[in-house]
Specification:
The structure holds 2 protein chains of 2 kinds. Chain A is of the alpha+beta class. Chain A contains 6 helices and 10 strands. A 4-stranded antiparallel β-sheet of chain A has the order 1-2-5-10, covered by helices on one side. A 4-stranded mixed β-sheet of chain A has the order 8-7-6-9, with helices on one face. Chain A has a two-stranded antiparallel ribbon with strand order 3-4. The N terminus of chain A is likely disordered. The chains are: A alpha+beta, B mainly beta. At the A-B interface, helix 3 of A face strand 13 of B.
């Protein structure tokens, strides 16, 4: 915990001045500067990189953290120690522009800005985007589209939805409270939520990033995760790289994390869990607060290449 | 619930069939049999189903019959997954003289005189089964083979399931996440730029043959039909004449009028999201064409007995299943065969 907290603080100095995007697909400048390296040559603190297709991502070194809360909703308990491998996470929620670039029909309610996050996206459509982006970048898609659930190959180097554990690790950014930035009265600086959103989404990256330099985790749209939602999962969750419980086969809900433009401040907390129906059987999925962002695994060598390509 | 319905109304089932038989109509529909989707035609009482297409490497679906009952246009999918190429075809009503009209195109609809076929170009070259993945609108001229864009083509986006009124001026279609609409059923001027939101909830509208009513799916479990005066400057929905309701998890979709406007056919089946084990089908809501819909069948009702019809309570004088094998039978299209 101490190490993570130190790394987060180190990152804050260079990365956290602004989350604003500089324009269409324009990567923000790498403000982290001299990232440390671990024994294998990988970075030991968050690093901003830009992928082949021009998407900003943040490299998060693996580590251990306390997941969940004993002081929150019943499904957040028990707080438990989880160890995660390193991964890359999108700096921003997936936008209309990115969705169109993958040649997917944009189902979003608000259509007037290509920089808004997509919403009304089914869980499977989000996974489809991940596979399309993998193919665009010559990576191996994680999802097997021939299976009912589009099973995830976690060993593939392509994009996928974050696991619930990865999402919370990224959001907490090495801290232990409900918000990584501290007091709840600062939430308006970090999140579009019911009390400041004017009841709509906003272009990605207009609020302050969290301690790892990731934007809109607390608000704008809630984000699909890979995991099946189970309110009791934390009682049985494995301690290393948990992927969620098995599919019960009936009335399945998948995890969504983070607040949205219609959430109360409490719903925006880093530990709050929600289950949402995937929309597989809805021709017109109308859940206009559901979006997503992507993650992918990365080797130390690949990280060096990504850093070098900037 | 279905078992109770059959037990309670077995005696009455003959009644609606008896009405359908002498009318002499036929119904084209899509069905997935032996690992392949094809176009079938049956008598309107459900008897004598005949397969019109038999192409193991192509998946034909979404049949639409010309107003004079002599031709069928439909879509055909070749390939798998994102590489699928969806094309439009037209053939004689007996399946002969098949001709391709366009690639990367979907949801064809007949013009009022049967001389033109409208269709919706696919939004992206890469295939997506979702029905609103369209951009613009075009027309194919059967005599010349020429394809021309709608005069407002560049402003038409994410439309699906259009229907062209026999009076000629208006096309009705659903829009989802496009043209500034969240989701709506729109009247679109066929040769102009006027667009009118009919302000009714649901999707898949279909004009009656006399263009005095429009039927649509008001929800997953409700079909409706209402008056519409297309001669008005700004037509709007009038009195509701038909409300057919079903119970979850059953869905009812794809409503279509008989040529005399006396009957309605529709598809009916359980809520599901497709079946990845069925070759060359896709995963999405069961009602989307190109998705294998396990347990779905074609059903019919009589319009004047459907003002407030609840299918779980209906007698077979009011309602009958025209197919029973459940092999993804969808998209009925009535026609009056030429003698």
């Amino acid at each position: 915990m101490t190490l993570i907290r130190f790394l987060a603080l180190a990152a804050v100095a260079g990365l956290l001045t602004s989350c604003e995007k500089s324009g269409s697909n324009a990567p923000t400048e790498n403000k982290l500067g001299g990232a440390g390296t671990d024994a294998k040559g990988g970075a030991s603190q968050p690093v901003l990189v830009t992928t082949k297709s021009g998407v900003d991502m943040v490299y998060l070194p693996g580590g251990e953290f306390m997941m969940g809360s004993d002081r929150g909703n019943p499904d957040e308990a028990p707080a438990h120690k989880v160890k995660l491998s390193a991964f890359l996470m999108d700096k921003y929620e997936v936008t209309h522009e990115q969705f169109a670039k993958a040649q997917l029909p944009n189902p979003s309610h608000w259509q007037d800005s290509p920089q808004r996050p997509v919403e009304r996206v089914r869980w499977r459509d989000a996974k489809r985007y991940c596979n399309e982006r993998s193919l665009l970048e010559g990576l191996k898609p994680c999802y097997n589209e021939k299976t009912v659930d589009w099973d995830c190959d976690y060993s593939a180097n392509g994009y996928r939805l974050p696991t619930e554990a990865e999402w919370e690790y990224a959001c907490r950014a090495g801290t232990e409270g409900p918000y990584d930035f501290g007091r709840a009265d600062k939430l308006r600086q970090y999140a579009w939520m019911a009390e400041n959103s004017d009841q709509k989404t906003h272009p990605a990256g207009q609020k302050k990033p969290n301690g790892f330099g990731i934007c809109d985790l607390y608000g704008n749209v809630s984000e699909w995760c890979e995991d099946v939602y189970s309110p009791t999962y934390y009682k049985e969750s494995p301690p290393v790289d948990p992927h969620g419980p098995p599919n019960p086969g009936k009335d399945v809900k998948r995890v969504i994390r983070g607040g949205s433009w219609k959430s109360s401040p409490d719903q925006c907390q880093a530990t709050v869990r929600q289950g949402e129906r995937t929309g597989d059987t809805d021709a017109c999925f109308s859940t206009d607060f559901c979006g997503f962002r992507c993650v992918r695994r990365v080797t130390p060598e690949e990280l060096q290449q990504l850093k070098g390509s900037k | 619930m279905v078992a109770v319905f059959h037990a309670a109304s077995a005696e009455a089932q003959t009644s609606l069939r008896e009405l359908l038989q002498p009318a002499g109509f036929k119904i084209a529909y899509e069905s997935y049999v032996d690992g392949n989707s094809d176009i079938f035609v049956m008598n309107a009482d459900g008897s004598n189903p005949v397969k019109l297409t038999d192409t193991p490497t192509e998946q034909e679906h979404y049949p639409q019959v010309s107003p004079d009952g002599t031709k069928i246009c439909f879509v055909s999918d070749v390939g798998e997954g994102r590489e699928t190429v969806r094309s439009l075809h037209v053939m004689d009503i007996d399946g002969k003289n098949r001709k391709k009209i366009a690639d990367h195109a979907r949801e064809p609809f007949w013009g009022p005189n049967g001389k033109r076929i409208g269709f919706l170009p696919q939004e992206f070259p890469k295939f997506d089964v979702i029905d609103f993945s369209t951009t613009g609108m075009k027309f194919y001229d059967l005599a010349t083979g020429e394809i021309t864009p709608h005069v407002n083509c560049t402003n038409l986006h994410h439309l699906y399931n259009p229907s062209w009124a026999s009076s000629g001026k208006w096309i009705v279609a659903t829009v989802h996440a496009g043209m500034g609409f969240d989701h709506a059923i729109l009247l679109i001027e066929a040769h102009g730029t006027n667009i009118i939101n009919l302000k009714i909830h649901g999707c898949r509208p279909c004009f009656s043959p006399d263009a005095k009513q429009v039927a649509w799916g008001a929800s997953d479990q409700e079909l409706a039909a209402a008056d519409i005066d297309l001669s008005a400057e700004r037509p709007r929905i009038g009195k509701w004449n038909v409300r057919i309701r079903d119970k979850k998890p059953t869905k009812i979709y794809h409503i279509d009028w008989s040529p005399d406007g006396q009957f309605l056919a529709f598809s009916r089946g359980p809520d599901s999201g497709g079946d990845p084990t069925k070759p060359r089908t896709h995963q999405a809501a069961a009602e989307v064409h190109g998705v294998y819909a396990q347990g779905w069948n074609i059903a019919a009702v009589k319009v004047d007995r459907a003002a407030n019809l609840r299918l779980e309570q209906a007698t077979e004088a009011d309602f009958c299943l025209l197919t029973t094998n459940g092999f993804s039978n969808k998209e009925p299209a009535w026609f009056r065969p030429r003698r």
